[in-house]
Amino acid sequence: MMYLEVDGEVKLKAKKSLGQNFLVDENIIAKINDSIRVEENDLIIEIGPGMGALTKKLKNKNVNLICYEIDLDMEKYLNPLVDSKTNIIYQDILKSNIKDDIKNIDYKNLYIVGNLPYYITTSIIKYLINLDLDIKEMIFMVQEEVADRFTAKPNHKEYGSITLYLQYYFNITKLFKVSKKCFNPIPKVESAIIKFEQRKNKISINEEKYFKLIIDSFRMKRKTLKNNLNNYDFNKIKEVLDKYQLSENVRAEELSEEIFIEILKRIDE
Questions:
Q1: What single string gives the DSSP state of each residue in the chain?
Q2: Are 188 and 179 in contact (CB under 8 A)?
Q3: How many other CB atoms are found less than 10 A from the CB of residue 93?
């Protein structure tokens, strides 16, 4: 375990097993709070409130607020924040039933925020997507390398199947970087705040087949698309590549979402 110090006094133990690194920079906390623009009849779900540094600021927005915290040692910091509009649920977000937890709350828009444990960032985001909630925005603290991967464009080294998967549902923006010095204990990596905005122009396609196509396309990233998709009818794929003046030796990282969707429609005919 790592010890969290505040003003030179040991307050509690940061648990490495839970990926705990507490954000202690008040300027960054305020900046995150300012990024979350809600109205009084909205609902915010906070994942991993920890000692409640951001939670206290979210309460000032006078919205409905539900926080999921796995660490029972945080009760003494979070329980005083509970009121008619704020609820703390001590549960692993991946084992929660969010739909049941919010079904009796009258709200307009749903926002999800949090400082996600870096070792399960992608798992949590996929879990939230699979719940099929009507999420307007999500704002998360993630490892900077992961932020680059989620926001990558074609021909970027971080561009991959997870990029396309997430960007199918959301417009994703890196808002700002966060130095590791803003945490206590100090982590080994730099961080960033990213925003997911619900994509209104999401194309209606067979999602299962589309996600399989992009996973297969990036299976061996340094191999060509043709080699990765050797179980597909590549003559049909080549027709799409020719349309965009792309070589049959192109790699998946060079193709945009538009091209992948056109390939899907062509092979699905």
A1: -EEEEETTEEEEEE-GGGT--EE--HHHHHHHHHH----TT-EEEEE--TTTHHHHHHHTTT-EEEEE---GGGHHHHGGG--SSEEEE-S-GGG--HHHHHTT---S-EEEEEE--GGGHHHHHHHHHHTT--EEEEEEEEEHHHHHHHH--TTSTT--HHHHHHHHHEEEEEEEEE-GGGEES--SS-EEEEEEEE-TT---S-HHHHHHHHHHHTSSTTS-HHHHTTTS-HHHHHHHHHHTT--TT--GGG--HHHHHHHHHHHT-
A2: no
A3: 22
* Cα–Cα–Cα angle for 232, 268, 211, rounded to 5 degrees: 75
Rounded Cα gap, residues 205 and 202, in angstroms: 9
Cβ neighbors of 49 (< 8 A, separation 6 or more) are 55, 67, 68, 69, 74, 78, 88, 114
Query: Model confidence over 117-136: pLDDT tens digits?
Result: 888 999 999 999 999 999 99
pLDDT at 259 over 70: yes
**Cβ-based neighbours of 227, under 8 Å, separated by 6 or more:** 220
Looking up tokens 């507490």, which residue turns up?
22
For the chain, list the domains and their CATH numbers.
2-198 (3.40.50.150), 207-267 (1.10.8.100)
**What's the confidence (pLDDT) of residue 7?**
45
The pTM for the full model equals 0.90
pLDDT score of 211 more than 90: yes
Q: How many CA atoms lie within 13 A of 18 on its CB side?
A: 22
